[in-house]
Amino acid sequence: MRLSNLADYAVVAMSAAARHGAAARFSAAQLAGETGLPLPTVQKLAGKLVVAGLLRSARGQQGGLQLARPADTITLAEIVEAVEGPIALTTCVDAARDDCALEGSCAVRPHWGVVNDALRGALAEVPLTRLAQLEVPA
With 90 as the cut, is the pLDDT of residue 47 above it? Predict the structure, then answer.
């Protein structure tokens, strides 16, 4: 499994946002400058992160972006899902999809939910505060 570039960039942008602090306002241009991401990409991500309830956006002179919640309550899983949608390692895990050619005879299908839940659970254990640390813990 590999995250898309956009999901990776969302993690980078949210980490930079967290370093500003919970009450601070910042612009997409500031995040782009701090992260090296292209401004249009940061703007696109900001829109998705606002819709997901991870960032708040305000217009006007005192406007800008800010974290919608404290960084320690935002998880890696939420950031990834804001960009990618629900985490689903295989189509078997997505109840809305029914397009597997092996569905009727697959002995592994009942186990993918457990694997998927374990992965999502691991991502949900990583708070944004850990990702925003400037030094990597040993």
Answer: yes
